[in-house]
C-alpha cells in the first residue's frame, strides 16, 4: 500500500509524501494534524535489512500511534488507479537470462564453445 500511495520508496518511508498525506486528511483538525506529525516522528525512522519488514513495522507503528489517521489515508488512496512495480526485483522466468527473456540461460557459455 505504501508504494501504491507513493509513501514508501527505496526501502523506507518517503517523508514528503507521507507528511503531505497527513496534512490532506487532517487539514480541518489541527489537533489531529499534530498527532499525525507526532506519530510520523515516532514511526518514520524504522529501518530493517528487509524492505518488507521495514514497511510492515512502519505501518504497524502508525496503526499503534494514530490508527484513525492511517485508516483515513488508506481509505483516501485505496483504488486510486495507479500501478507501481514491486519493491523488490522480480525473479526472472524459469530458464531465461536475467537481462532478457529471449535468450535461454546457460550455466557455462565456454563449455559449449567449439
From TrEMBL:
SUPFAM superfamilies named among the record's database cross-references: Insect pheromone/odorant-binding proteins (SSF47565)
InterPro entries: PBP_GOBP_sf
A molecular function (GO) term: odorant binding
Name of the protein described by the UniProt record: Uncharacterized protein
Organism: Cloeon dipterum
